[in-house]
Design a protein that fits this description.
This is sn-glycerol-3-phosphate ABC transporter ATP-binding protein UgpC. By secondary structure, the chain is of the alpha+beta class. It has 8 helices and 18 strands. Helix 2 crosses helix 3. The structure holds adenosine-5'-triphosphate.
Amino acid sequence: MTSLSLSNVKKHFGRVEVIRGVDLSVDDGEFVVFVGPSGCGKSTLLRMISGLEDISAGVLRIGDRIVNEVPPARRGVAMVFQSYALYPHLNVRDNMGFGLKVRKVPVDERARRVGEAARTLKLESLLDRLPRELSGGQRQRVAIGRAIVGNPEVFLFDEPLSNLDAELRVHMRSEIASLHKRLGSTMIYVTHDQIEAMTLADKIVVLRDGLVEQVGTPRELYERPDNLFVAQFIGSPKMNILPIGSVAGALPAHPYRASHVGMRPEDLELTDPGSGLVSGRVLLSEYTGASSLLHVELPDGEVFLVAYDSQLIDADTTVGLTIAPDRLHFFDVAGRRAN
Ligand SMILES: Nc1ncnc2c1ncn2[C@@H]1O[C@H](COP(=O)(O)OP(=O)(O)OP(=O)(O)O)[C@@H](O)[C@H]1O
């Protein structure tokens, strides 16, 4: 277990700067998730922490050591990849023990650590199988097992579940959460999946274009996004945003110098046309089981998403939309949170 910090960390590939000055601290035992649009630098940042990419500028500390120049094997980190990266010709036992063998850990110590990791990950009955004889979820468990046996101070996960089908993802997600609880290790995890980020993270880091947009707990990011980008990135379906001018007359009095107002789909309620904040025409009503998602076209052509109970509403019906005043998110002209 250990803490970790990045100070003004940068990365150039040739003349292109893809990580443009990141400051971040990760506490001992914390589960931190990196999210952000494709190409924003999540994997690059993770690979810089692991030592697979060098650091162009800034300082990376793991524990109280500066590790910029420390080779990957000496950083006390272990990385789990999306592609599993198992050796196809080695069985599960040897895949898990490979790193220990390279480090010349004695045979019985190796066997003990592999046995313990296999028990933790319920792989005991599979130790003699080759990777091709395993399911995707079992392969990923072996990859995690290989990380565990090295007894790392920090686990790094690069989209470890994205090759799995939906059901297995949910299952493995809960396994990773319980692994974190059991080991208490520091973990950094890259994902595209909002639910993974929201459910696993103690702290989410939202990246955009090589910079940190906001760091916070899932609840902080969801309930008080710092800016328009985070407001629209976190949450699915995403937050509806309107220029303040289009609803100014209907908004409750407020002291904010705001240029945009945001409303989460699940905070909106239907009301009689003309009586709410805005009115619009139902374009589409999508039934998703537990709830429906209404697409409502406002007079200026904006389409609002509204999460609604399971009842469907006919297309072309005109509806009013209302929201509790304390559920409104205000943003200033620069896109920063105003309330
Ligand atoms: N070896 C490399 N050489 C040049 N450019 C690279 C290299 N690796 C990554 N990049 C660029 O750096 C930027 C960040 O890439 P990175 O893979 O870190 O993004 P990401 O957020 O993980 O994306 P994704 O979600 O699509 O996996 C991208 O613009 C990418 O094209």
